[in-house]
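hey
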């Protein structure tokens, strides 16, 4: 794949984003350096790691930009970060993003205290959300994802998954406020196991439980999830260009784009507009195709979620670069215009969960803290 053929927007784009929003975009596109002083303060003099590097889009350092509700998970260790514009530094254990004589105060989000216990095999917290992964590995093998390339495929104990959520909700350092069930996709014969996980975890807790899942062929499955009390669904289209999708998400793409749309349409009928979302990856197809995907989702009442591609070293796409800051700003602003036209919002609605998505709160009631 020649990225220059995919992301060939060379014109100067007129940004309507403010300074702090552009800072987030710059960090997502280019990452940051980390000073030795900041490393010592973040790691408590080497007692904890800077990052767990568990998944490409969460492998950086999560930050809240002070004086705003803007969260960003900033990469720092990847090759593309070597030319970063910004550096994370600290003074008296207060943290700043610095570029030349310019600086912006930020607040790093801590790792949960259970990160080095047995419960991290089942759950991990990011900002205010705990994600549990019922399947180790994955039955699919998408080109941009390393889930199928590391652990051997296996189902995890439902009891342990439930207990790990309880641990995360009560964590003294980073208590979770809501739950996401995602991770690797199950084999067809294991769908009944996933049904058990979805139902039991959702019914075990009073906090919102969202599910990120591959579509099922039976669209009435949405009604079952709703009856169990699942809060929101994320059914990720990921790539809109059918030829590129056929190459990059072979297993996941077997049901076809229309199969995804049928499932999403039923989900909107059951849950309502803006209560169902779908991720589109930015940077692996022409921006025009991504925008067509935003249009197709928004006109169906689905909240599009823009997820900038971040290369993982364990995948066939490790050599690619993330989209540039200009490309991210352009796709965001055009996507926001499309969403507004169809009276939906770019997802997710949870403000801290914006840390690894191209989303900004706009003062409306849609964006909130859980």
């Amino acid at each position: 794949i020649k990225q220059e053929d995919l992301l060939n927007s060379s014109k100067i784009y007129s940004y309507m984003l403010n300074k702090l929003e552009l800072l987030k975009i710059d960090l997502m596109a280019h990452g940051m350096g980390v000073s030795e002083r900041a490393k010592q303060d973040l790691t408590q003099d080497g007692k904890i790691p800077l990052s767990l590097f568990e998944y490409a889009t969460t492998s950086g350092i999560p930050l809240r930009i002070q004086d705003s509700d803007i969260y960003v998970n900033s990469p720092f260790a990847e090759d593309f970060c070597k030319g970063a514009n910004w550096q994370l530094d600290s003074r008296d254990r207060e943290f700043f993003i610095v570029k030349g004589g310019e600086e912006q105060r930020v607040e790093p989000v801590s790792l949960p205290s259970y990160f080095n216990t047995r419960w991290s095999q089942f759950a991990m917290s990011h900002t205010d959300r705990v994600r549990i992964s019922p399947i180790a590995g994955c039955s699919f093998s998408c080109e941009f994802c390393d889930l199928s390339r590391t652990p051997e495929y296996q189902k995890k104990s439902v009891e342990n998954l439930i207990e790990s959520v309880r641990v995360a909700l009560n964590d003294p350092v980073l208590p979770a406020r809501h739950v996401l069930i995602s991770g690797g996709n199950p084999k067809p014969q294991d769908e009944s196991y996933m049904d058990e996980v979805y139902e039991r975890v959702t019914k075990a807790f009073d906090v919102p439980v969202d599910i990120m899942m591959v579509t099922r062929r039976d669209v009435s499955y949405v009604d079952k999830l709703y009856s169990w009390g699942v809060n929101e669904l994320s059914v990720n289209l990921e790539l809109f260009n059918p030829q590129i999708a056929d190459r990059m998400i072979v297993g996941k793409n077997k049901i076809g784009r229309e199969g995804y749309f049928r499932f999403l349409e039923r989900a909107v009928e059951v849950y309502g507009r803006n209560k169902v979302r779908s991720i589109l990856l930015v940077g692996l197809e022409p921006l025009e195709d991504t925008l067509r995907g935003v249009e197709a989702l928004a006109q169906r009442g689905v909240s599009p979620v823009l997820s900038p591609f971040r290369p993982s070293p364990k995948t066939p796409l490790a050599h690619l670069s993330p989209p540039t800051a200009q490309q991210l700003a352009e796709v965001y602003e055009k996507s926001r215009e499309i969403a507004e036209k169809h009276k939906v919002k770019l997802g997710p609605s949870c403000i801290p969960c914006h840390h690894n998505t191209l989303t900004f709160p706009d003062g409306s009631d849609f964006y909130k803290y859980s």
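The first helix runs from residue 3 to 6. The longest strand covers residues 102-108.
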